[in-house]
From TrEMBL:
<keyword id="KW-0378">Hydrolase</keyword>
<dbReference type="InterPro" id="IPR015797">
    <property type="entry name" value="NUDIX_hydrolase-like_dom_sf"/>
</dbReference>
<protein>
    <submittedName>
        <fullName>8-oxo-dGTP diphosphatase</fullName>
    </submittedName>
</protein>
<dbReference type="GO" id="GO:0016787">
    <property type="term" value="F:hydrolase activity"/>
</dbReference>
<feature type="domain" description="Nudix hydrolase">
    <location>
        <begin position="5"/>
        <end position="128"/>
    </location>
</feature>
<dbReference type="InterPro" id="IPR000086">
    <property type="entry name" value="NUDIX_hydrolase_dom"/>
</dbReference>
<keyword id="KW-0460">Magnesium</keyword>
<dbReference type="InterPro" id="IPR020084">
    <property type="entry name" value="NUDIX_hydrolase_CS"/>
</dbReference>
<dbReference type="Pfam" id="PF00293">
    <property type="entry name" value="NUDIX"/>
</dbReference>
Length: 145
């Protein structure tokens, strides 16, 4: 039997002291929270900090796992979604993310149009402090659990 292959992704909803949420604008998906692939043999928390710094120019603290999403359609992926607090730095665009900025929490869902990212941030905004497991498929996009 061959070993399953999954892409491992981390994403993070980051709040600042004004309770605003950090958003980055991806070239194709539009506004979203910082996210990216975990490199082979890289610790999740290190990957999370690296991706946030690379995509948005800020550092985080108090990162906590919130929701684990399983993408069951190809390419299969496991997405570890965290919540965290802003530690230092100002939102700074990158090659991957031409815009990065703080957004009032009550305006976030208006900005995010990509359906997968919209459901992901909605679940994080409603997060109750417990770790949740969810799954979805694409082609067409649908939440399975």
């Amino acid at each position: 039997m061959s070993q399953p292959k999954h892409v491992v992704v981390v994403s993070c909803m980051i709040r600042n002291t004004a309770d605003e949420i950090l958003l980055v604008k991806h070239h194709l998906r539009g506004w979203e929270i910082p996210q990216g692939r975990v490199e082979e043999r890289e610790a999740l928390i290190y990957a999370l900090s690296r991706e946030v710094l690379e995509e948005a120019g800020v550092t985080i603290c108090n990162a906590k796992p919130a929701i684990i999403w399983s993408k069951v359609s190809d390419p299969a992926a496991v997405i570890f979604c965290f919540t965290a607090q802003h530690s230092s730095g100002e939102p700074t665009p990158s090659e991957e993310t031409p815009e990065a900025e703080w957004c009032p929490a009550d305006k976030v869902l208006e900005r995010i149009t990509h359906p997968v990212n919209r459901d992901r941030i909605k679940a994080l905004l409603e997060h109750d402090g417990n770790l949740h497991l969810r799954s979805y498929a694409t082609g067409p996009y649908r939440i399975l659990s």
